[in-house]
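Form 7-S
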Amino acid sequence: MKIGIVVHGRFHAFDLARELIGSGHDVCLITNYPKGVVEKFGVPRTSVQSNLVHGIASRAMQKLDQLLRRQLSEPFAHRWFGAWSAKLVAQKHFDVVHGFSGVFEETLRLNDSGILKTLVRGSAHIETQYKLLAEEEQRAGLELDKPSPWIRAREQREYDLADLIFVLSTFASRSFVERGVDLPKVRLLPLGTDCSRFRAGRDDTADRIERLNSGASLRVLIVGTFSHRKGAIDLVRIGEALHKIAEFRFVGAIAPDAEDLCGRATKVIQFAGKVPQFDLPRQYQWGDLFIFPTIEDGFAAVLAQAAAAGLPILATTNCAAPDIIKEGATGWVFPIRCPDLIIERLRWCNEHREELVRMVENAYQNFVPRDWSDVAHDFVNSCEKERKQRNQKAINVARA
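Output:
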């Protein structure tokens, strides 16, 4: 198939494009990243159309918005990229065009019934996301970065216009159905991970088991962004309660809304800062357990990375954890905003080292890989099935 992928940034689009190309499809990646950067992810320059000016300008405007705590540039930046990418799509004659929510409305409005237009939403339904963040804002007692009225309205239009909506977890799928989107229109497409880089080795697992059997402090790893959306309040509560029996390491950026909280947490959590994607496997090797008390995530790629690295995972329901974790065998899933339940389970892990060691062994031995080739395969199957159904409907109408 001839496939266009429209993305304002990177997200997981580069990995999907690479694997689709590797499977023999003709792919054009339409982005605002430099071609040289895209090439590092395995996508050849010849398969990339880049609006570099937009990339530079939008990042500068985004930083200004962060300083002002306002989303002033969003309508201009999204419409700009949307109009530019729609013009390219109109010229390319794709079989399928797959776009990321927020910048895809202009393409979805193209009058070309021959193109299957699929939307991907990396988080839950935007109204569900807004509700959860508004609740967390009340809990935190400060203003958080939430979807603006403008982007909420725009995404709702995109949901209506798209032929298919791809979501990344059962939690996200359920949020769309609960908001009135027809279930047949919503397709679940869990993400993969680079198993060749993140997969735990036998020696890594042996070192982890030896450390646990020695009675040393548990090493608890968190990777992502330290923010209220990702459960920063609960994470600090967990660290404060258990820092005497566990070492906590956070790897990732600090969101502006959580800088004050981070300052308070440095006594109980080691903040390692943001690490390049290609250096992350070493961080997973350090840990004994992985926790992720997020309030809202569409998937959270770090969960797939942690699973590949053989770490037992403690995470909340509002992400892909229920899809990835085998309860009691490879980890545990908790309701959001319930840090005391996670604290109780971490205490159990500390006091039941033999059971935890068996869990580490199980996570290593029974890991079922899902790499990016699986994601590409499932994406193509969904699109081909939908195209066949559309063609059959057209034939039936013509016969009638």
